[in-house]
Amino acid sequence: MTRSVSDPVLEVRGLSTSFFTDDGEVKAVRDVSFDLAAGETLGIVGESGCGKSVTALSILGLVARPGRVVAGEILFKGRDLLSIGREELRQIRGRDIAMIFQDPLSSLNPVHRIGAQIEEAMRAHDKIAPREVRPRGLDLLRQVHVPDSARRVRDYPHQFSGGMRQRVMIAMGLSNRPEILIADEPTTALDVTVQAQILQLLRDLNRDLGTSIILITHNLGVVAGLCKRVIVMYAGEIVEEGSTEQIFDSPQHPYTWSLLRSLPRVDADRHERLRSIEGLPPDLIAPPQGCKFNPRCPFRLERCFSEDPELEPVGDGHIAACWVTMKRAYAEMGAGSLVDTGPGAASGVRPPIAPVGPDLSEPEGQGLAPEAHDRD
Ligand SMILES: Nc1ncnc2c1ncn2[C@@H]1O[C@H](COP(=O)(O)OP(=O)(O)O)[C@@H](O)[C@H]1O
Ligand code: SF4
Ligand SMILES: [Mg+2]
Fold this sequence. Notes:
12 strands, globular, Rossmann fold, eight-stranded mixed beta sheet, binds iron/sulfur cluster, binds adenosine-5'-diphosphate, four-stranded antiparallel beta sheet, alpha/beta
């Protein structure tokens, strides 16, 4: 089958990745599916530990033991990256799909000059002609606005500030003109001004070079200015996906709604306390039955404790996995004026008293109890 230009450049289908630890199987990513179109900017958002980085590492074949992709397909221009050879994948990584991490210092080699490291990134692949490598290295540093770049190519990583190192990482990531750039919390360690500059830089790169960008962040505020579409993850799963307008103006999953409420607001009274989401994300070895957000959800119903909702359309190109959805929560549970956002506060629904588990009662007159067999 021939591919058309409008086909997604990346298709993730039913991706599940687990870590097989001594305590059990940590289901870090479960049944995650999404597309990335050529030139698109996609945000992946959620609290720490919800599976964002593991999703990115799975795409690049970088999940380390005891982790492993247990199911799914990752199609890059129609080719499944999970079924190609190690060397072929190594070539795609860095050349066609590049990744930049939160902590550039751990990804840069402290004993090599910045310029040499950018050049090395190009020499590792054969996309850039050898005679172009050196001038391109310098050009890239200029492109990412490293001042006095002709001199600074000879510096070592420790001579750069955090923001400048992140620019170097972006330059390295872009060195082979990748089609996809995955930026995992690229601004988290930086102060607000530098953060804004890096985001501006990513915006320019997307506009000028058409690079598709996946921006991963725990901060929903960061995606607004860069991404056209947003995926919200909770406990290893996608719970909502929509255009940035849909996610910000009309979130349908209570978790997305809670994330938005916990964002600092520019127009808010400075003394207003930041509202954080009560409770913690669940244990990924033994998550709660039913909807995994039920221990923290103000709008939960009885069925949320036993039945896990699937992603369903809630608007044009907008999907969410929730039995209630915010439309109903506003109409029937007064979500608009809710002061107490604690678990079950809006619906009044408490968790079932007895934990749901296997029925261990022994039917009458049915022979020996299990312990009696053990003693044989
Ligand atoms: N090496 C590992 N061993 C066991 N569990 C891991 C490992 N790496 C990640 N995890 C688990 O996978 C989950 C998802 O992690 P991650 O994708 O890094 O979250 P984040 O959304 O913050 O990027 C976490 O809950 C974490 O406990
Ligand atoms: S209403 Fe139910 S299904 Fe929806 S997020 Fe809350 S607990 Fe989950
Ligand atoms: Mg992460």
